[in-house]
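Researcher: Quick test of sequence recovery. Tokens follow.
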């Protein structure tokens, strides 16, 4: 799979990688890999992730 512009279907069920609650955002890392974040941690890490070149996706 090369399409990264849209969140994969399974992304809607991810849990935050920091605290384990339901994730509201997903960061696609430029070197590969993904990190899921809840609202709190998504905001806390957003600027750093964007600066690192990650693509942020909002989950439903
Ligand atoms: Zn969290």
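Model:
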């Amino acid at each position: 799979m090369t399409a990264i512009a849209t969140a994969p279907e399974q992304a809607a069920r991810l849990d935050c990688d920091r605290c384990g609650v339901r994730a509201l955002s997903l960061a696609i890392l430029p070197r590969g890999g993904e990190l899921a974040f809840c609202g709190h941690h998504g905001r806390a890490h957003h600027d750093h992730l964007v600066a690192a070149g990650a693509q942020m996706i909002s989950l439903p």
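Residues 39-51 form the longest helix (13 residues).
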